């Protein structure tokens, strides 16, 4: 099976207290696809400009990522710049240059339309809805969004929530979407809007998964070296959806394991700048970190 993933492919410039990069491969779809590629095939739908280095498309291919859905349009690639201070949970966006992304209209190649697993990264909810109109009968649709769309496109977002299975957002987005500071109450409101499952990412404090009456709390891996948190949320989604697609099992026990695989991919992502670490790990590294997560969360009844 393969996942269809739709979102940004970018050239990012990032500054943290530990270093600086310029015009490196980034974007939500890049982080998602590389993370998910350790579990399954990914078909990516995105747009880049004529200036996009072909070596990045080659890299996707090396990871078995299908790039037929990546359109190259005249103009410059989407660029994003961000800076972090010592509190890596806080970042400032320096600039967002939409460029060819401004007129992005996702069009799925025919062979993507039967994908059973779909990930809608953070883009305009109207475009996320347009993608859903093109897929035939998905088993699971997972979706991200951000404060920008919650504030400006609430109606489209509410329409979208009725059509998806899993919403993956961070704690501040959960609060903003519901106007409710308590995450447990907020989760009930969101599950009432449509999704069967809500995942709330809490950065270095782990993640919560709500489905029906069940709550699962996953720890974050206690890492000594965190260099760059960019893309951690998308890497989380890649590990989560990637594992579900690989196993094809959507029961609660497996969803909980998928949250751990999501946390694992996020933990690797933040250990180096940009996408770098996601291109150098092995399946043995992933298996070893799974054991570490078990140890961190284990306690006797
Ligand atoms: P995250 O750290 O999960 O917010 O993801 C960061 C990635 O999102 C970066 O690689 C950016 O290129 C990309 N990004 C930043 N702003 C936007 C936006 N408005 N729409 C789509 N992607 C974005």
What this model shows, in words?
- The chain has helices spanning 28-36, 54-62, 125-134, 147-152, 154-161, 171-178, 183-192, 232-247, 252-269, 283-297; strands spanning 2-6, 10-16, 19-26, 41-49, 65-66, 70-73, 79-84, 91-97, 117-120, 140-143, 166-170, 197-201, 207-211, 214-218.
- The protein is an alpha/beta fold and 301 residues long.
- Helix 1 packs parallel to helix 8 (232-247), helix 6 (171-178) packs across helix 7 (183-192) and helix 9 packs across helix 10.
- The mean pLDDT is 96.
- Residues 8, 10, 12, 26-28, 80, 96, 122-123, 230-231, 233-234 line the site of adenosine monophosphate.
**Residue windows where pLDDT falls under 50 for at least 5 positions:** none
Q: Note the total helix count.
A: 10
Tell me the β content. 25-35%
The major β-sheet equals: 10 strands, mixed
The distinct bound ligands, ions and cofactors come out as: adenosine monophosphate
Q: Describe the global form.
A: globular
Percent range of helical residues: 25-40%
Helix and strand content put the structural class at alpha/beta
Order of helices and strands: EEEHEHEEEEEHEHHEHHEEEHHH
Number of strands: 14
Taking all Cα atoms into account, the compactness measure Rg is 18 Å
Mean pLDDT: 96
């Amino acid at each position: 099976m393969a996942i269809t993933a739709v979102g940004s492919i970018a050239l990012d410039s990032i500054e943290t207290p530990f270093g600086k990069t310029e015009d490196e491969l980034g974007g939500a779809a890049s982080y998602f696809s590389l993370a998910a590629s350790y579990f399954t095939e990914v078909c990516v739908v995105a747009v880049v400009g004529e200036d996009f280095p072909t070596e990045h498309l080659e890299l996707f291919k090396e990871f078995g990522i299908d790039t037929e859905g990546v359109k190259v349009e005249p103009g410059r690639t989407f660029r994003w710049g961000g800076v972090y201070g010592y509190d890596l949970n806080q970042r400032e966006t320096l600039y967002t240059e939409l460029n060819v992304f401004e007129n992005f209209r996702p069009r799925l190649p025919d062979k993507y339309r039967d994908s059973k697993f779909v990930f809608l990264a953070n883009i305009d909810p109207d475009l996320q809805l347009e993608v859903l109109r093109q897929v035939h009968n998905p088993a699971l649709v997972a979706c991200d969004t951000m404060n920008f769309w919650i504030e400006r496109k609430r109606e489209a977002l509410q329409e979208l929530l009725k059509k998806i299975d899993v919403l993956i957002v961070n704690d501040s987005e959960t609060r903003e979407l519901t106007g409710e500071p308590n995450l447990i109450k907020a989760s009930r409101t969101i599950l009432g809007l449509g999704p069967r499952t809500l995942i709330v990412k809490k950065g270095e404090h782990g993640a919560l998964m709500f489905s029906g009456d069940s709550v699962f709390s996953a720890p974050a891996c206690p890492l000594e070296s965190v260099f760059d948190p960019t893309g951690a949320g998308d890497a989380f989604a890649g590990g989560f959806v990637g594992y579900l697609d690989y196993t094809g099992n959507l029961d609660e026990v497996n969803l909980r394991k998928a949250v751990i695989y999501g946390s694992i991919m996020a933990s690797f992502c933040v250990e180096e700048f940009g996408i770098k670490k996601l291109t150098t790990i092995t399946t043995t590294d992933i298996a070893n970190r799974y054991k570490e997560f078990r140890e961190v969360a284990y306690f006797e009844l």
